Structures are given as structure tokens and as C-alpha cells.
Amino acid sequence: MLDASRPVYMDYHATTPVDERVVRAMLPYFTDVFANAASVDHEAGAQANAAVEAARDHVARLLGARSDEIVFTSGATEADNLAILGATEKLADKGNHVITTVAEHKAVLDACKHLERLGKRVTYLPVDAYGRVNLDELREAITNETVLISIMAANNEIGTVAPLAEIGAIARERGVLFHTDATQAVGYIDIDVVKQHIDLLSLSAHKFYGPKGVGALYVRKRGKRVRLAPQLHGGGHERGMRSGTLNVPGIVGLGAAADIARKEREALAARLRHLRDRLWHALQAAVPGVELNGHPTERLPHNLSVFIPGVESRSLLVQTKRDVALSTGSACTTASVEPSHVLLALGFGENRAHQSVRFGLGRGTTEAEVDFVAARVADAAARLRQLVAS
Ligand SMILES: *Cc1c(COP(=O)(O)O)cnc(C)c1O
């Protein structure tokens, strides 16, 4: 049943709650096993280190990676920066060109802008109306100077999933590294770094029921080993790629979340897809003219992004905020009134970017919540349209 005391949470792309099992796994590492995982001289340190290595193994298994290919970070923002800045710095002698897309997360786009300030060249490929790059354009953009392609696995606003294996094959064939920001994809769709020819992959625990402030970068070792220039200098932790005392409780939490995701991902995705489709059908029935943003089939199971013509999403969120926690798009840009760069990139103009809402479903979502939210959004949309018309 619905808990009327607080709004329904439908912003799971911004963050997720921590799974109770994950919390339980973490607790001993705050108080009991608190030693520094780098303290190799005593048993307590060895215990903390063993927990970190077990977590590394869980993360690796979720991705089809090997545990010595996982570098722990403070989250996906740091992993994106380490991948992009670290790889280009290391490959400076080989070339100075990077390819990405206009629909990436700010962590990738702003790291690329920084590269430009460092004198490197960045190509921002356009995306189609569904938010996907054209693979021929990608091929044509590669030059002898290209060292890295960074394309996200799944978009955090519109849910579109990229053809990872195809992009990876193109990058591999041309001898260019392929980085993917898979923060929204991990724990929801199948990721296999070997089959998908991924060289670098960013993820974050708090997007799949782990704690905030911890994530990882997968750095390929098998076949052609990827080398990165560290972006944090210090004690040489994480095989020199990321200095700083390890966040042992956070890493244990990430590992537990990854273990649960590996075992439960398919069942969770099926349930979320069903709920998401139910929400979409309810909105279509109750909101005249509503349209889907993003790809109709190649999309995250828990994402629904819709365009409600004539209804400003800001006003809609104000009207419905007592009932539901929703978002217009990315949490990092929510504070601004600028239209979403992702929605603009789809090429439909500013109106659609200002009149779109993102629903992010999650483990706690129920059919009752979906029906309630659809009804509240439909009511509010109808009221706002009347206001505009009168
Ligand atoms: C949330 C998110 C990030 C940032 O992750 P943090 O761990 O919060 O730094 C980066 N990329 C995408 C696609 C995201 O959804």
C-alpha cells in the first residue's frame, strides 16, 4: 500500500537507497575491522585487505573482468576523469584526439573540455532522435591521432542503451581505446567487458543499491594492457593508479551490491520493465499527446522519459512534488534552468527539452505507486494545460 506520509520516490537514476544486506555487510568495517587495508604488517590490516580483495572480485565478476583489472575510486565522476585524463596523458606521444558524444554525462563532457584546455582535440559526435551515435560517423571521425573513444553505455536522462559491442569492435579494429561510462547500466543490463571489447569502464555503487562516494574503473589488462597516468599522486595505492587510503567500508558495500546485482539483475530488470511499461501505458491513456523520449526498445528497463506537449516540466514538478519525487533530467543540472543538453541533442528544440519529465523506477517501486503517480501526473498536466489555455 502507499505510504501517504511521504512522496513516492521515482528518481532512481539520481541515486538508490542502500540495500539492507549491503548495510549489514559494511557495518563491521566501520568499527571492528577498521585497520588500514595497506597496513600489511599486522593481522588487522590483512583482514581489511582481504575484504577489499573479495569486493574487487565481486565487481570483476559482475563485468566479466578479472579482479586485477578493477581500480576503486570515489565514484563514477572520478572514474570518468581518471579514464579520460589518465589515458590521454599516457598516450600523448601516440596522438592528441578523443571522440565522445554530445549526450554524455557532465563528468565526461567536462573532462573532455579540460582536455581541450590542455591543447588536445575533441570530437563531440551528434546523436540521432533516439540518442544514439551513427556508427559510420564514428568510423569516419577516427584519425591517426585518435587515442580514445568515450561513449556512455546507457543515458542517465533518456535511458537509451548504446550498441557497446559494435562500438567496441570499431575501436578495437582501429587500435583506439574504448571507455564507457556504464554508471546507469551496471546492475540493470548485461555488461561483459570481453565480449563488448571495452578497455575502460566507469561505475558507481550508489546507482545500484550501494553506498555513495565509492565506485570503480575497470582497466583492461588482458590482451593489450591499458596504461593510465595517475591523476592523484601519493602512496601508490591501487597499483599506482589511484593513491589514497582505501574506503574499506564503502568498497565492501560496493562489492556486496555487485554480488547482489550479479545474482538478481535479471529478475529485477524484468520486474522494473513490467512496472515501467505499466506506467507508460497509464500515461498514454491519461495524458493526450504524451510522447516517449529515447529509444523505444534499446533502453534501460527502469527508465521512462516523456514529453508532455504544452506542460512545462518545472511547473509539473512543483504541482506534483507532495506526491512524487521526480526529476526533469540529470541531478547535476537540476539546480539550473538551462534545458537539458541531452534532450536538446535529440534535435527537437527547446520546447520539448523544457516539457519533458524523467521517471526512474527502482526496487521499491510497486504497481500501486505506478498507478498513483500516473494519475497525479495526468491530473497536474491537465490542470496546467487549462491554465495556459485560459
Ligand atoms: C550518476 C552518474 C555519474 C556520477 O557518478 P558519481 O558516482 O555520483 O560521481 C556519472 N555518469 C553517469 C551516467 C551517472 O548516471
Q: What secondary-structure arrangement, pairings included, does this model have?
A:
Blueprint lengths: L7 E2 L10 H7 L1 H4 L11 H21 L6 E4 L2 H15 L6 E5 L4 H12 L3 E5 L9 H7 L4 E5 L13 H11 L2 E5 L18 E5 L10 E5 L28 H39 L4 E3 L9 E5 L5 H8 L3 E2 L15 H5 L4 H5 L1 E5 L6 H23 L1
Parallel strand pairs: 1-11, 3-4, 3-5, 5-6, 6-7
Antiparallel strand pairs: 2-8, 7-8, 9-10, 10-12
Report on the structure:
InterPro entries: Aminotrans_V_dom, Aminotrans_V_PyrdxlP_BS, Cysteine_dSase, PyrdxlP-dep_Trfase, PyrdxlP-dep_Trfase_major, PyrdxlP-dep_Trfase_small. Its cofactor is pyridoxal 5'-phosphate. This protein has 390 residues and is an alpha/beta fold. The chain folds into two domains: 8-17 and 265-389, Aspartate Aminotransferase, domain 1; 20-260, Aspartate Aminotransferase, domain 2 (3-Layer(aba) Sandwich), CATH 3.40.640.10. Helix content is 40%, strand content 13%. The chain has twelve helices and twelve strands. The chain has helices at residues 20-26, 28-31, 43-63, 76-90, 106-117, 135-141, 164-174, 248-286, 313-320, 341-345, 350-354, 367-389; strands at residues 8-9, 70-73, 97-101, 121-125, 146-150, 177-181, 200-204, 215-219, 291-293, 303-307, 324-325, 356-360. Strands 2-8-7-6-5-3-4 form a seven-stranded mixed beta sheet, sandwiched between helices. The protein has a three-stranded antiparallel beta sheet with strand order 9-10-12. It is globular, with a radius of gyration of 21 Å. The mean pLDDT is 95. The protein binds pyridoxal-5'-phosphate (PLP). Pyridoxal-5'-phosphate (PLP) binds next to helix 4.
